[in-house]
Amino acid sequence: MQDLIRHAKKLFDSGQLNEAEARFQDALAIDATCAEALNGLGIIAYTRGSFDRSLTYFNKALASEPGLTSAQINKVHVYLRQKKWSDVGDTLRQMLATDCDNVDVIEFAVERYIDLRDYDAARDLLSNAVISFPGDKRISALYNQLNKSRNQRELASQWPSLAKDMQDKAIEIAGGYKQVSLQSNFAEDYSALHIASLLGNLQDPANAANLPLEQARAPRSSLLHGPKEAADLKGRSILFAPMIIAGVVPELAKRLKNYGAKVETIDFTPNYLGYQADYTLHANTAREVIDFANYSLELANKFDIICLEFASSFKYHPNTGLNSVFNVPANGQQPYADLLPLKEKGKKLFFTFWGSDCYSQSMLHYFFLKYLGFDELPPPPYQTKHQYRNIKAIEQLADAIIAPAYFNIVLPKTIPFWNAGIDLDLWKYKKTSSSKISKILTAPTSLRKKNYELIQACLNSLRITHPNVNSFCVQNTPHHEVPALYARADLGVEQATIGFGVLALEMMALGLPVVTSFHYARQLASNEEAPLLSFNNVRELYARIAECIENPQRAAQLGKLGREYVEEYHDINQHAKAFSHYVDQALSDDGRVWHIESNTYAESSAIWQKNPETVLAFKYFDISVPLFCAIGSFERAIIDCQEAIGNEYRGEKFSAWLAAIYTFLDINQELCNAYLQRLKASNSKSQLELISYYTNSINNGKALMDEAAKMFVEARQIKASPT
User: Fold this and answer.
1) Other Cβ atoms closer than 10 A to 651
2) How would you classify residue 265: left for phi > 0, otherwise alpha for psi between -120 and 50, otherwise beta?
């Protein structure tokens, strides 16, 4: 029996799960109560992601052998994955009751109590263990570590008063408006109401009356339209992967099929909007994800064109949270190494960009602060070093880079005639009433990335000045239900950022007047003058909405012009015709796809040839992190820290803030893990030095507390002028 168990364990250790499972089952055929075999089957089920099934096996093992510590530990791991915290605590207590003299068990239990932040339970257990195991180095080290953690938590208790002082100063800087009520736990209760306090005296309509009502304007371009007729795609085949974004791919695929092409789609995650792919991954385990990727790659060999969305490949998803197993290149390989065999076989690779796959998130945060009126901030790098390296790799592989022309600042080249396209049969024209505006629509795909707090703050103020006007937000709704919901609105408010979206187009197609950020309006109007009301800061945002409410006839006219604009420039049929010609060009004799070369990409990417310590753009992080802490936007502060690390920035002020955030917010090691993992994959000396640098900054958080406290005080002296 024991030889059979040992053989099964050896098979498991070598990754042969099916064979190991068969041997454990053989052991159970001999003895149905064999605890080790039941425990082994539970581990295999856990490895495959079948957590409930694994618990069944572990419980059977414990029923057979109640003192089997390994099965109890395994149960704890399952409950941790399922986030069943009370079950974790119960199992730890049961485990300690049956094996209280085992130092390994005590160490495991203490670490899990700390994970649960049940510090009292950890301290009680260790206090008894120090007496029971005098001189045991592991117990002593754990006891000292816990006491150190306790001291840091006591220091962290200073955070609310320090942060409140900083927020008061930030509010004063932004708008001179100090009458704000903060809850004691505001660090965890940050909301749009806090941003509303930054709006100053917007509740006085007179402040808005003097602002001119302007439309977004952009230089006219000779590239007004794509081709009038589609290319003949009979005998051509196109595969879209690995995800569906904004519903463009299904609509595009439908029309390309009408032109004669064989078209199929792959989606590595089920889409909550209801868009259907031909092949969709429904998986819980890394093994299933890898198997699906291998199948997708094999399928790709049957197609002429492979169009890859969001700068991702089949086994590399650097810009998404889709599948963590593919967030970094496998086994130290170069990015997109899985595409090399396809390239060698003559397959044509198209890459489509959408915004946050080539622009840094710090840029989105920068515009958040700009809209609040912090005008003296230096802009951060347009893209992270990680994004830049990915795009350089894509440049060598891509037969076509598909993105709007205004992405040229972060991409080496883009194809012409490429605008967002929508199905005008789905988004039918609804004439806006010219009598009144009573319902305002918002529909952010990401509250943070679209800077939705700013929009919500203005809408909160409007409820006071215009009590008969209501707003509603549409989120996480299947796409076929959305047009009817949108049609209830009289006015649409888009996003307060620089990013890309199709919401404005959908609202204009319905005939709604649309208010959106100046930067987005300018990008959307890259072909022609777009009938959009744009804003540069929160005061202008309020003014644009108020003007539409007070002048409904003008708003209705803008809605009519918006429909005409979308029909001319953003019909999905134009989109598909243009794409058909890119396919035809790629598969022609010379295989060259017509691109517009970027005039600015070399200049924007040259920043990576310089020392970050000497580049003004990186000084943004010295200011943004304390400023976001000051107004309570800790998620933005943390992400800016991540991008500063990814950009290899090592400024003294930033390092102190990094340590302070770790210590005050008790984030543990989560902040840097993704970036350190990417750095480790390169194995270069300079990157290994960076790993050591950031790790030391974090570990020395307590030593840097005095310096961090000075940073808190210094943040109160940040100079910025409201617009």
Assistant:
1) 16
2) beta
For residue 298, what are its two tokens? 């094999």
* CA separation for the pair 481, 478 (Å, rounded): 6
* DSSP-based helix, strand, coil % in the chain, nearest 5: 55, 5, 35
> For 116-182, where are the alpha helices, taking DSSP H only?
119-132, 137-156, 159-175
Backbone angles phi, psi at 407, to 5 degrees: -85, 0
**pLDDT-based confidence at 568, cuts 50/70/90?**
confident
Query: What CA–CA distances, in Å, run from 550 to 202, 431, 437, 468?
Result: 16, 18, 8, 12
CA 475 to CA 435: how far, in whole Å?
A: 28
Structure tokens at 457: 């703050």
Are 640 and 365 in contact by the 8 Å Cβ rule? The answer is yes
Q: Taking a C-beta distance cutoff of 8 angstroms, is the pair 96, 103 a contact?
A: no
Q: Are 250 and 244 spatial neighbours (Cβ–Cβ below 8 Å)?
A: yes
Under a CB-based contact definition with an 8 Å cutoff, are residues 342 and 300 in contact? yes
Q: Are 247 and 259 in contact (CB under 8 A)?
A: no
φ, ψ for residue 176 (rounded to 5)? 65, 20
How far apart CA 629 and CA 166 sit, in angstroms, is 8
pTM for the predicted model, two decimal places: 0.64
**Residue 637: which residues within 8 A CB-CB, separation 6 or more?**
624, 625, 628, 629, 661
Q: Where are the alpha helices (DSSP H) in 243-354?
A: 248-258, 286-300, 340-344
Rounded distance, CA 600 to CA 267, Å?
Answer: 33
Q: Can you say whether the dihedral through the CA atoms of 534, 535, 540, 545 is positive or negative?
A: positive
Structure token pair of residue 31: 């003895």
pLDDT digits (tens, 9 = 90+) for 278-318: 999 887 688 888 899 999 999 999 999 999 998 899 988 88
